[in-house]
Amino acid sequence: MPRERRTQPCPPEGERAATVARLRAENARLHQALDSHAVVDQAIGVLIALHRLSAGSGWEILREVSRHSDITVREVADLVIGWPQGHPMPAPVRDELDDALRRRRRDSGATPEHGCP
Q1: DSSP 16-52
Q2: Quick one: which of 24, 72, 87, 88 could link to 82 by a disulfide (CB 3.0–4.6 Å)?
Q3: What pTM was estimated for this model as a whole?
Q4: How far from chain centre, in Å, is Cα 88?
Q5: 3-state SS, residue 60
């Protein structure tokens, strides 16, 4: 026996418009978060490849540089990705990255690798 389908009354036009606007904004934020996540993952990959770090250590390095440079992790990640492609890295960020890598090597007992990133 078919089930009776109950329809819900449509909300007022203004409420629908507000819901659509809220969902569009949320969708945009989610897309931005996905894009940022991809950039950060790529930067961690650069750090892993160049400095033999674990993924967790790469993430900690990015966070530390971000905190000390007063820029977002996403911005640090963009700079780390751009550096091997020939894009300049601002000296203060480069210095923070070198310091963070030096501290990581010192704390882990690892031998130094080549410079930034």
Answers
A1: HHHHHHHHHHHHHHHHHHHHHHHHHHHHHHHHHHHH-
A2: 87
A3: 0.69
A4: 19
A5: helix
